[in-house]
């Protein structure tokens, strides 16, 4: 059944959209990530204009992170103070991201920056995750106990000024790295159409030493708030949010996520991380190819906004 | 088919304008094309009759007529871009913008255009994709020629530009009809269909009809809200997302 998408101005099969949302939702449930970094590229590869894909996926990420954030909320797994610092700085970042998005779109370089951004972030995060996961798999085979670097150990980050106490996380850190992390995630998320959970979680763990009990919940709340703000910013600024597209993806992804979460219980942590790393790297390689290979058709066209008569 | 076309002819009878030797009566099947949620393109039929002028004897009507219909969609400023390899990376390097570029352009004729009239007569009447009124480059004029051809090629690949030779059928010496397929991604807006009557390479009569392509109902509501109430639209989208997420959390809670 074809569904006409009023903003994208194309018709796509509704079952394909729900299926795509479902597949990504399955993976996001499996790995505990938002899935925006997979969904946006898939939409772009299936012919949806990049600006519409990026802006509509932000709506889908809101839905995907809501149920997770709620369940962490009930269990008290959210540091509200830390989350609000991240959110406020993130919203400033999102303003910058959406503004940059508009400028790049007008200059015709949005696709390039999206490709480059995905290549750099997915490539580096994917490689790091793969090395880490393979390393711990080898150690697991060798029967050694894995020496964890304990959160709570201090690094140079903890020597910075403007320290604030975060009770729930048992932290007393400078707000500078907090604001910097929040702002960057907001900027990247709105520019690339990703929640940024897969960048935020490691950043919270390794840079701020946020304890594991609150890191996922806090990250989910931050992603939820930033993506909600970004959806509205995109709707106002570029008018590229396709609500029907976003809704089809949401429906698929929230269902897929449930199956993913149950499937995830049968796999070990490092196996999951290795799998996720391979998927992340595959997407990065796909973007690398589109940048490096001679394009089949070097020409493209677009309508300048405001020029319709 | 003939009966249907004939009955539509009665319904949409639009009159006669041209004062030249021949007169043309033309109409179309649908003055309003509605894009609904299940829109997957639509066929539109043009038909008409060539009538003799008042001062003509019936024998003056010959079967030497040619009909060319140009269907054009709303114009906008369109940019053609070329990827160039810079520092090993392919990125959009050069661009030429064209203002008043039709977003849709089909030319339907009963014979290949070169058999209907010469290049100049066609160009003067706007029956070529690269006629001057449709290609007004802004800025990088030097590359305009090359980029315009590429732009027309891209439009053809999306079926937005198309030449359909033998697309007009004569059912008698004077009665013709033509069908064109509007693709699913047809742009919204006001369309104009200009029917040209050629005889021996000369334009004898011309008749314009307008029709509109509009999203209707829920889709129209959505696309207009996205433009006119963009903040509210974004807010509704977020609330919808939060509700969907919350609902799934409740429904699947273990």
Total of helices of chain A: 10
Order of strands across the main sheet of chain B: 2-13-12-4-7-9
Mean pLDDT of chain A: 83
How many structural domains are formed by the residues of chain A? 1
Average predicted local confidence, pLDDT of chain B = 81
Distance between the termini of chain A: 32 Å
Radius of gyration of chain B: 23 Å
Percent range of helical residues of chain B: 25-40%
Number of domains of chain B: 2
Beta content of chain A = 5-15%
Level-2 CATH architecture of the largest domain in chain B: Sandwich
**Regions of chain A with pLDDT < 50 over 5+ consecutive residues?**
none
Fold and architecture overview:
The complex is a heterodimer of chains A (309) and B (254). Chain A has 309 residues and is mainly alpha-helical. Chain A has one domain. Helices cover 70% and strands 7% of the residues of chain A. In chain A, β3 (163-166) and β4 (171-174) form a beta hairpin. The model of chain A has no long low-confidence stretch (mean pLDDT 83). Chain B has 254 residues and is an alpha+beta fold. Chain B folds into two domains: 2-215, Macroglobulin (MG2) domain (Immunoglobulin-like); 218-254. Chain B has helices at residues 2-11, 113-116, 119-124, 144-157, 217-228, 230-251, and strands spanning 22-28, 32-35, 42-52, 65-72, 75-86, 89-102, 105-109, 136-138, 161-164, 168-170, 175-182, 189-199, 202-215. In chain B, a hairpin with a 2-residue loop joins β5 and β6 (89-102). In chain B, α5 (217-228) crosses α6 (230-251). The longest helix of chain B has 22 residues, at 230-251. Chain B is flat and about 80 Å long. Residues 5-20 of chain B have low confidence and may be disordered. The chains are: A mainly alpha (309), B alpha+beta (254). The interface between A and B is large, with 62 and 65 residues. β5 of chain A pairs antiparallel with β5 of chain B.
């Amino acid at each position: 059944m074809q569904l006409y998408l009023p903003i994208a101005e194309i018709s796509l099969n509704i079952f394909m959209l729900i299926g795509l949302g479902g597949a990504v939702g399955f993976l996001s449930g499996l790995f505990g990530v938002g899935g925006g970094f997979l969904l946006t590229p898939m939409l772009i590869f299936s012919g949806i204009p990049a600006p519409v894909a990026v802006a509509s996926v932000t709506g889908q990420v809101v839905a995907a992170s809501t149920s997770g954030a709620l369940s962490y909320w009930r269990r008290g797994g959210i540091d509200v103070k830390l989350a609000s610092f991240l959110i406020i700085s993130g919203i400033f970042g999102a303003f910058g991201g959406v503004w940059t998005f508009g400028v790049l779109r007008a200059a015709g370089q949005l696709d390039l920056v999206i490709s480059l951004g995905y290549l750099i972030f997915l490539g580096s995060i994917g490689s790091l995750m793969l090395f880490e996961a393979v390393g711990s798999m080898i150690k697991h085979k060798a029967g050694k106990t894995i020496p964890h670097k304990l959160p709570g150990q201090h690094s140079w980050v903890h020597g910075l000024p403007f320290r604030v106490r975060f009770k729930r996380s048992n932290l007393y850190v400078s707000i500078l790295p907090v604001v910097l992390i929040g702002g960057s995630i907001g900027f990247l998320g709105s520019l690339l159409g990703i929640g940024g959970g897969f960048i935020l979680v490691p950043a919270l763990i390794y840079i701020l030493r946020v304890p594991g009990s609150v890191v996922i919940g806090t990250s989910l709340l931050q992603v939820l708030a930033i993506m909600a703000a970004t959806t509205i910013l995109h709707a106002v600024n570029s008018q590229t949010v396709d609500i029907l597209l976003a809704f089809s993806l949401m429906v698929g992804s929230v269902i897929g996520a449930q199956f993913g979460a149950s499937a995830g219980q049968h796999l070990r942590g490092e196996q999951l991380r290795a799998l996720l790393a391979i998927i992340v790297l595959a997407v990065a390689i796909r973007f690398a190819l589109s940048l490096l290979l001679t394009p089949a058709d070097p020409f493209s066209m677009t309508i300048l906004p405001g020029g319709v008569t | 088919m003939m009966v249907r076309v004939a009955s539509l002819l009665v319904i949409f009878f639009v009159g006669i304008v041209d004062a030249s030797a021949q007169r043309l009566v033309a109409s179309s099947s649908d003055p309003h094309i509605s894009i609904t949620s299940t829109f997957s393109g639509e066929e539109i039929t043009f038909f008409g009759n060539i009538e003799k002028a008042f001062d003509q004897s019936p024998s003056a009507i010959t079967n030497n007529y040619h009909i060319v219909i140009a269907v054009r969609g709303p114009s906008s400023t369109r940019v053609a871009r070329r990827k160039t390899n810079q520092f090993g990376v392919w990125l959009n390097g050069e661009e030429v913008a064209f203002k008043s570029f039709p977003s849709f352009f089909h030319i339907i004729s009963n014979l290949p255009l070169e058999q209907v009239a010469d290049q100049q007569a066609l160009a003067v009447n706007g029956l070529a994709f690269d006629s001057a009124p449709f290609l007004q480059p802004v800025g990088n004029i030097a590359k305009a020629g090359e980029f315009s051809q590429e732009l027309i090629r891209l439009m053809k690949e999306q079926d937005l530009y198309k030449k359909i030779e033998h697309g007009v059928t004569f059912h008698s010496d004077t009665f013709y009809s033509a069908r064109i397929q509007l693709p699913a991604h047809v742009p919204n807006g006001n369309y104009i269909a200009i029917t040209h009557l050629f005889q021996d390479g000369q334009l004898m009569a011309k008749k314009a009809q307008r029709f509109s392509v509009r999203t209707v109902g829920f889709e129209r509501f959505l696309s207009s809200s996205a433009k006119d109430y963009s903040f509210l639209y974004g807010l509704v989208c977020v609330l919808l997302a939060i509700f969907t997420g919350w609902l799934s959390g409740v429904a699947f809670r273990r």
